[in-house]
Amino acid sequence: MTDLVEMEKRGVIAHLTLNAPQSLNALSDAMLAALKARFDALAEDRNVKVVVLKGAGKAFCAGHDLKEMQAGRDSPDAGRAYFADLFARCAEVMQMIPALPQPVIAQVHGIATAAGCQLVASCDLAVAAEGTRFGVNGVNIGLFCSTPMVALSRVVPRKVAFEMLTTGEFIDAASAREVGLVNRVVAHDALDTATTALAETLAAKLGAAVAMGKRTFYEQAEMHLAAAYAHAGAVMVENMLLRDTAEGVQAFLEKRKPDWS
């Protein structure tokens, strides 16, 4: 049986591939469960320092599985309980990404629509191929992308997010970079190489420091300014007291490579 989310470890970098190309890697019930299982495992894997998330076939991810959602209407409550459970499960998976200790890089090509665009917005970083299109286009079929909106409105300016949500129009990779949805745009045939190079750059840093920094990055963003400084300062104290940080500082002063454990 084919894994819906394949995982390949290249040294300390884990490459996750959404593997349902026939449905444009739609976030079906099974796909969400497979993603959750992978994230649960990675949260405990101290040998993995960076995660790359990509899609098989001609697209990154086309969002929820609409055929599966329509089938959910067949219950006596017209699907109310199923839909509530589906969106709760999807929200749980999206929130697992910033909660992971490792940085997660979305490697995006083709299209990333609706919950697929939400998935890109939920990742810590994103590299997109030229020609990739992004949209929260549920409004075109009468379903406002309210849950994708949560992630999208936290990474792009509000008016950009609102326009995308209400018009259902797509933006291209260059525009996505301009508004902050992706970090880098590269030629399609350079996508894997460029994403791996970024992952290797992150993986070369002290993993404990990056994990502490990632956690604090999201925590302080929800705080008022004074509280954010107090929290971040306390984390820096703990970071400075790490054996490997002491070694890193000393190595810098002595102009040599650090001997990290």
From TrEMBL:
Pfam families: ECH_1. One of its GO terms (molecular function) is hydro-lyase activity. CDD domains: crotonase-like (cd06558). Coiled coil: none annotated. Keywords: Fatty acid metabolism, Lipid metabolism, Transit peptide. It comes from the Bacteria. One of its GO terms (biological process) is fatty acid metabolic process. Belongs to the enoyl-CoA hydratase/isomerase family. May play a role in fatty acid biosynthesis and insulin sensitivity. This is Enoyl-CoA hydratase domain-containing protein 3, mitochondrial. The lineage of its organism: Bacteria, Pseudomonadati, Pseudomonadota, Alphaproteobacteria, Rhodobacterales.
